[in-house]
Predict the 3D structure of the following.
Amino acid sequence: KQEVTQIPAALSVPEGENLVLNCSFTDSAIYNLQWFRQDPGKGLTSLLLIQSSQREQTSGRLNASLDKSSGRSTLYIAASQPGDSATYLCAVSQFYFGTGTSLTVIP
Amino acid sequence: EPEVTQTPSHQVTQMGQEVILRCVPISNHLYFYWYRQILGQKVEFLVSFYNNEISEKSEIFDDQFSVERPDGSNFTLKIRSTKLEDSAMYFCASSGGSTQYQETQYFGPGTRLLVL
């Protein structure tokens, strides 16, 4: 069974810092990997979708990479802002979610 | 911008009662999903639905669960006899296109279900 792990569970950074969130998965046979943002008590907002055949995707200050062979994906956030404070989830093949990284950006 | 909507936002029910959670996916989307998130735990996949039938389901989606697209706009999740452990936030999602795994999923705001 696919297991998805996100490290760290929580992260606090000063505004303006660049940061990396990590997502690991145990089975490299995946269809895709999505990164989501979840605000407290709210639904999930898709940030980036990486297909199985792709290595990375970029949107604005966000860049996500995928390395299937090592079972890893990273989400890079450049020049962090207080509005980036949220929980970030990765999901493999739409079926398996990680527990998330709670990000706090301090003004 | 189009969005997925869900009703009700909160529902309280007694154990053993039937509940129906409703979702209106984005109008031109073809794939529909239900997930749940028990407080403090991971989001869990329940079921995906395409072309008026279930395309995938998880072990959680047992005989007490059912899904339906009763008309051209609504997508419902029915829990026949609720249990205490069904208390969770239930999310509906939809995605467009003809290939399930190549499209971004759009999630609704969720229905918080509390079973007493």
Notes: Chain A touches chain B at residues 31-32, 34, 36, 42-46, 49, 51-52, 89, 91, 93-100 (CB under 8 Å).
